[in-house]
């Protein structure tokens, strides 16, 4: 057989393989209960379902949808309206779900899920200054001042800081930064909370390999996003 025939057959086989894999795709997300219909069920259904699935009351969900539409933070598209975009985000964040799970729930491709997740995330971030108010850190909690059991020990403490490691998935190039002592990948998340049992600030994205003490020193420097404080023994102390 002519060698050119072998080359021709190989080329035809390669083209056929490419066409079957990339050009003649068979839709995989074909459920009758597509995302918009499921969101409509939640909006009009029992309050318990919205709390379970979106981790928020449906009244608040609709208020936030209206806010995003009114301010132009999000736009309805031909395939996904703002309510479904928000529900995609809340489904993933509120239940720690994966992109693949969201694909099945909303019947969209992974690229679509990822795109709308980041759009909604940016919308939330843009509202930071409107809804987040940092504590001034000037006053010791009433619970501390009024209780002799606590005041002598915590009279200068405004709030406490603690950190925890949360698993992450990052590109291979960043594995070294986020590999912890147990040789798994995680980010070190710092949380500041007052004695009223309320979170007042959270700093996420810290490298797992960096010592906690180094981050505490960084947070105490001028220019930190945290309120002006001194950090001693894991507690935030008022500057006198």
User: Biggest sheet, in brief?
Assistant: 5 strands, antiparallel
Tell me how many strands there are. Answer: 5
Give the integer mean of the pLDDT values: 76
> Termini, distance in Å?
93 Å
Q: How much β-strand is present in the residues?
A: 5-15%
Description of the structure:
This is DUF8040 domain-containing protein. It comes from Hyaloperonospora arabidopsidis (strain Emoy2) (Downy mildew agent). Residues 30-125 form the DUF8040 domain. It holds the Pfam family DUF8040. Keywords: Membrane, Transmembrane, Transmembrane helix. This protein is of the alpha+beta class. The chain has two domains: 35-129; 142-237, no CATH class. Helices cover 50% and strands 15% of the residues. The chain has twelve helices and five strands. It has helices at residues 3-23, 35-44, 47-54, 58-71, 82-95, 99-106, 110-126, 128-131, 142-145, 148-154, 175-178, 212-219, and strands spanning 157-167, 186-194, 199-207, 230-232, 235-237. Strands 3-2-1-5-4 form a five-stranded antiparallel β-sheet, covered by helices on one side. Helix 5 packs across helix 6 and helix 5 crosses helix 7. The longest helix is centred in the N-terminal third of the chain and has 21 residues, at 3-23. The model is unreliable at 228-234 and 236-240 (pLDDT under 50).
